[in-house]
Amino acid sequence: MVSSRARKVTTQTLQKMKQSGEKIAMLTAYDYSLARLVDGAGIDVILVGDSASNVMAGNETTVPITLDHMIYHAQCVINGVDRALVVVDMPFGSYQGDSKTALDSAIRIMKESGGHAVKLEGGVEVCESVKRIVEAGIPVMGHLGLTPQSIYKFGTYSVRAKEEAEATRLIEDAKALEEAGCFSVVFEKIPSELAKQASESLTIPTIGIGAGSDCDGQVLVLHDMLGITKDFSPRFLRRYADLGSIIEAAVSQYVEDVRSVDFPNDEERY
Ligand code: KIV
After folding, report:
1. Is there a catalytic annotation at residue 128?
2. Predicted model pTM
């Protein structure tokens, strides 16, 4: 008998999890080795996030990362995953132009990376593209609230939809994404009460990051929750490990051992 842990996660699995009240656990990954560990630990969804632009490439924003870069990261992740659903972010500039461009970009991601679904940012304004991509047989995850690809429009990474007009707009956008065919939507950095209301009014699962505990699932950036990135400490981030300090200590010990000719020793040579 195959255990339910080993069963592959699909968009239908996530829908059933929402219906039964089982929370969805999602994390980012960008490479084979960490994706393999994350998948083996039982994660439901792996997001090949365009946050790769920050944590992999060291860019200040997600704006510079390209479609080719995203496809490369997604290929690496796919090679390490047996169970999780792998969602790949569509990078800035690959879908905002028109729905044909969006479809072409989504098709490239699916064909060249082997990913299982794509994610894009925005509400009503991206619905035509969502419909076209879904009609082509590609599952789409939406992303509302703080949308990092629009950082130059908003100017800050502060909490979104605190005012009533913006909150109403967010619910309308979420419903429009659901109607357009999204299988799920991410809510980033919005008040928890709003996330609760939106999650209750949608039939598709919602995934929160800085959006409280009433979303149907949670997502964090892997390098943030593992403590590899140290200069990013928003209130919503729980650090589950301090790998940054462990790596620094290991590397400085290695440097010391090489310099003192303690490494390699007699057992570590041929
Ligand atoms: O790119 C990313 O990591 C994301 C998450 C923050 C949801 O979009």
Report:
1. no
2. 0.96
